Write a sequence for this structure.
DNA sequence: CAGGTAAGTAAGTATTACATACTCGTCTGG
DNA sequence: CCAGACGAGTATGTAATACTTACTTACCTG
């Protein structure tokens, strides 16, 4: 990738720390990157596409490392926990990543036709695979659709850190992981005898 | 409210059926409403504020009715289920409402300073109150932060219907309610003896 | 019926996203 | 060793857009 490309990507990342995507202009990106606006057009054609490319970089950074991690873990519930912790870790380390994924891309239909979304889908599918494995080996109940279980888990992850992401507060990935797993594994009822 | 006000609100609702908020222009809104652009400015000052006002209408429509509903229900878990069903019902009936709340408002920081967000907070607090009640009377476990429990529940609701909202597919509020409650109440593990 | 007030509009303007056509340097094959 | 292809990057334009001002018109009220 030519230097200009990376400068532009870097500029957007930088600007996203301060303001939301829609409030960032071509002019600002170009100025921050130290290049001409037309170069953005050349490499990305439009602002959204640039955003998807930035998200993609983050996804690639984390996806591989997590997949490795999961291979050496046995048991569906253990894997699930590991995957959840990886999520929280990523979101807490790279706030920009979290902001883009949770707040900025979903409102635009063409995101769901982007390559980047394919990566997200792939990642979501690997969680589905873990659940399926758990259902097969009896760890996980089979009377709720695996897809729906996955959605509820992903929703739980997101909403647990959403306030901290929105308001820029710190959070502890480990604490959230423990609580979420307790919730997911046992539900909210108090222990009955 | 003067007729122009309602025409503008109606126009935005109509346009949101076809496209995302950012792709809707002042000119389109004005044309659809049959008024001058300057009238939008007069009543709403900017597009986002108009969006918040539209969301507010929806929130008011549902919030009152749900609160009534909850008063005649006893038991925290029962109330929780009712609240969850109300959510799914609202989202499935008014897709525009769901789209705005889940996809369109969160990415703009000033939303969190709007009156509309206060309504959302109020609604979220009433779920928190249900959980607190459940903790007090022993229905709900006390070893996980009530706030976090609420977040996980809200996240579950959202993510269960998110794909259908994004891709414009139908869904059954009752089925989703049953599944989500099963999940929330008992967790994902298979029943152990 | 004077005068305040609310609804609504005509007519801007600065900014913005996007687009075209160019320059400049480097590398490559004959 | 040089013609010319090619890739990086830019100067310059343009239509559209969000927002603003100053105005008109109709009504209501004392």
């Amino acid at each position: 990738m030519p230097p200009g490309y990376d400068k532009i990507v870097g500029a957007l990342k930088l600007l996203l720390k301060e303001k939301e995507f829609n409030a960032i202009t071509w002019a600002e990106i170009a100025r921050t990157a130290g290049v001409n606006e037309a170069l953005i057009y050349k490499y990305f054609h439009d602002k959204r596409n640039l955003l998807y490319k930035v998200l993609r970089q983050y996804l690639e950074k984390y996806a591989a490392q997590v997949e490795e991690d999961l291979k050496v873990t046995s048991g569906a519930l253990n894997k699930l926990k590991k995957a959840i912790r990886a999520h929280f870790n990523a979101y807490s380390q790279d706030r920009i990543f979290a902001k883009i994924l949770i707040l900025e891309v979903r409102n635009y239909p063409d995101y769901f036709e982007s390559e980047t979304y394919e990566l997200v889908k792939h990642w979501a599918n690997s969680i589905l695979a873990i659940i399926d494995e758990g259902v097969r080996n009896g760890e996980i109940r089979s009377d709720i659709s695996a897809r729906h279980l996955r959605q509820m888990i992903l929703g739980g992850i997101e909403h647990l850190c959403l306030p901290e992401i929105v308001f820029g507060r710190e959070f502890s990935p480990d604490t959230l992981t423990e609580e979420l797993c307790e919730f997911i594994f046992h539900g909210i009822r108090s222990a009955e005898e």
